[in-house]
Amino acid sequence: MKVRLKIWRQKNSKSKGAFATYDFDGVSPEMSFLEMLDALNTKLVQEGREPVAFDHDCREGICGSCGMYINGYPHSPVPGITTCHLSMRYFNDGDTITVEPWRAKTFPVIKDLMVDRSAFDKIQVAGGFISVNTGAAPDSNSIPCRKKHADEAFDSASCIGCGACVAACKNASAMLFLSAKISQLALLPQGRIEAKERVREMVSVMDELGFGNCSNTGACEAQCPKGIKLTNIARLNREYYKAF
Ligand code: SF4
Ligand code: FES
After folding, report:
1. All domains of the chain in start order, with CATH
2. pTM for this model (two decimals)
3. Which atom of ligand 1 is nearest to the CA of 179?
4. Is the CB of 76 under 6 A from ligand 2?
5. pLDDT tens digit sequence for 176-189
6. Tens digit of each residue's pLDDT (9 = 90 or more) over 147-170
């Protein structure tokens, strides 16, 4: 099949970007979206042109590095998947596909479709851990934990830190991301010890970095490839109020 790609090209964070148009023939419906970009880059290199820079690593929906806007949707027009899981069979022959980097002041463009998401790392470093002595793994039943809480903590822990929630939010809020990180620890006994300090520190760093606040629009939940729920934000707010 043949597609027309309108891809955001930007030399670096200081330069002004613009869309470039590529008419790309020979796309197989069996290709993943990233494989299609790989094939485009091979063609560009063969023609002596600059390939398109984009982030990717696991290509299995795990690492969270492959985010980009596709036809106006963070990650993908298909709900619940990362860009690397998007298949070209979702498009039709002759389609125009618009590809852009995350749009958020806190995620500056490095080049083309690559953005700097290290702001998330800074929030995580501020408290997204528990302090324990390492040693042999404890018996699985030595710390009682309700099954419901274990399941909810597991769901929250499935956040891959991709940043689609920030990109989708009109306020560029990181509340869904942060609430997942807070919840996965707040729901388990191991996380309770440092809970107050953790939430105070992580919220403080998030605010300092310039992320916006949540206004309950729900775009983050709708675009999250891992189905992280807004109820996590409610839990984050409760944890924050209890921390003072
Ligand atoms: S909450 Fe969802 S959209 Fe936001 S970083 Fe985590 S996985 Fe990505
Ligand atoms: S490349 Fe790792 S989630 Fe897409």
Report:
1. 3-111 (3.10.20.30), 117-242 (1.10.1060.10)
2. 0.95
3. 1
4. no
5. 999 999 999 999 99
6. 999 999 999 999 999 999 999 999
